[in-house]
Here is the input.
Amino acid sequence: MTTTTQTTVFQPIAARPAPVNTEGALAWIRANLFGDWKTSLATIVIGAVLLRLLPGLVDWAFLSAVWQPSFDACRADGAGACWGVIVEKYRVIIFGRYPFEEQWRPLVATALLIALLVASCIRYFWKAWLPVLWVVVLGLFFALMYGNVAGLSQVDTDRWGGLPLTILLASLSLVASFPIALLVALGRRSNLPAIKTFCTIYVELIRGVPLISVLFMASFMFPLFMPPGVKIDVLLRVLVGITLFAAAYSAEVIRGGLQAVPKGQVEAAATLGLTYWQTQRKIVLPQALAMVVPGIMNNFISTFKDTSLVTIVSLYELMGAMSLALNSDADWRPFTIEGYIFIALIYFVFCFSMSRYSHWVEKQVNKSKLR
Here is the structure.
């Protein structure tokens, strides 16, 4: 009998390369700026253009800029951006034609309204008393702006302007348009021909014309159909026009979300004995609205920027107030580009904040899908 002894020789496995780091600034640059040869080429070209233009832009905007409100300094040779025009005209740009000595009132009113909007975006404040808070804050806003109460002088709405008017038009039109959009979107999917036809005509009619036409009709044509002696404030007419316009576009966004909900879920709800409104409130709308958050927020941002069109009806919101402040003064008129940059920065802050909030809402509603 022969016994064979086998000796096992240890063979080490060759060392593998370390895993690529997927976090941090270098990983982000590698993935987004130099992911492949096309991306790398675009990065190099854009980087070269920025290196060519950025020094001159920095010199114009900061190094050689004039910060004091001196017309002569802004006109001097070698002077860059004249930010002194903002220092000189910022009160007119921010508050429009509101009386100069009373501008503390729109400042407080706007601060209250912005604080209300911020609170409405925080989950802690999503209580039953939040609508009551809206009524109280809006009442204070109009009391401060219009006056004629508590010893405040009266300031008619045609003298409101600047940032307070922009915030008012955007916030009220968006808040009022959302429930209208919900009902219209549901109406377009209704089995009742009269409701479906009415909602379809409304959406197609509003979407078929630009907002500037709606504002023109609300401001100049609508009063012609009113009985003699009946006058509706131009601010209210413009607010209704923007609200109906925003509602039509939001309704189509919401309708897209409603169509994406599987029909089987509606049939299952009917099998369980749920009514139409119970099905919509508990099953359909939560899913539909979660799917169209980006589209709704995009429409909100667009509406916020579209408030600049109310200038055609002699309401000088932020953009109109800037034009009014500079075009009425021949000395500062050449520096309108600095004024537009200042206005663009304000619009960017608000729109970017809305965009980031939309991103947060998307993450919250998609948590169930990440499990």
